[in-house]
Design brief:
alpha/beta, single chain, 40% helix, globular, 8-stranded mixed beta sheet, two-stranded parallel ribbon
Length: 274
């Protein structure tokens, strides 16, 4: 594995990354063998290693970065580019609320460690993930806000209360996926306002991030382990830092949605439903 320290230093300085030509493996073909290889080597490896380290109380930020970036390196091994852009603007801003679309387990593991370059990170995630072997121990060792997605009112209360504490007291940015469950498309109407509400209450900006992880599809029998599409580059783009007040909350929500939708449209591979 390439040096995570070097990657993080360069990423903090530039806020961007693109797979260098010498790191790109020989292009693989789509099919069950390629999908099986990635799911075992990348997802399985990250989950097992993370869970084992967490069990031994050794899953710190550096180990989190290693597990997350392991997915990037395995993606590149199959001949698929990883392209990240626009994160430099987060330097010196302080804690923010990050809202992003949600396509697969890929971004659950690979995206949050990127933000460690700019400070602490907390994640809003499904409570059921904490019960999954290895995965549960991994995330339970991090700053997390579990939600059940059965009682919206209870979820709102949990995110606002715990989110404000992480933002104000621990100076950690909070990542959440307002569309809820993982979807291979982006739907304007299912991208809720929870992130903007949290930012408004905590007095911090909201930042939209577009993620294109069609590289890893949602599985037929389990959502976590799906088919791989080596023709779909993995992409993350950070949008503008948007201040939020009661008067501007509606406009901030529209800006977040528009940024994510415009990027996904530009990149292709993902349907945008308006």
């Amino acid at each position: 594995m390439r040096q995570v320290e070097t990657f993080m230093q360069q990423f903090k300085e530039t806020g961007a990354y693109r797979t260098p030509p010498e790191a790109l493996g020989k292009p693989h073909r789509n099919g069950w063998m390629t999908s099986l290889s990635f799911n075992i080597r990348a997802l399985g490896g990250a989950m097992l290693r993370g869970g084992w380290l967490a069990h031994h109380h050794a899953f710190d930020d550096r180990r989190w970065e290693e597990c997350g970036f392991h997915l990037f390196w395995e993606t590149e091994r199959l001949g698929t580019e990883v392209i990240i852009e626009g994160f430099k603007q987060l330097e010196g801003v302080g804690p923010v609320v990050v809202v992003s679309n949600h396509m697969s387990l890929y971004e659950t593991f690979a995206f949050p460690p990127l933000l460690l370059a700019y400070g602490g990170v907390a994640i809003v995630l499904k409570k059921s993930l904490l019960r999954v072997p290895y995965v549960g121990k991994t995330f339970a060792s991090r700053k997390v806000i579990p939600v059940g997605r059965v009682d919206p009112r209870a979820d709102l209360k949990a995110v606002l209360e715990h989110g404000e504490r992480f933002l104000r007291e621990e100076k950690a940015s909070v990542i959440l996926y307002p569309q809820g469950t993982r979807q291979p498309y982006f739907d304007y109407h299912h991208f809720n306002t929870l992130g903007v509400k949290l930012a408004q209450n905590a007095g911090v900006p909201v930042v939209p991030v577009a993620g294109q992880t069609a590289f890893l599809g949602v599985g037929k029998y389990t959502k976590d382990f799906g088919p791989v599409d080596v023709t779909a580059p993995v992409r993350f783009a950070c949008g503008p830092v948007i201040p939020v007040t009661r008067e501007t909350a509606k406009e901030a929500q529209a800006q977040c949605i528009d940024f994510i939708a415009s990027k996904l449209t530009e990149w292709g591979k993902v349907e945008v439903r308006r």
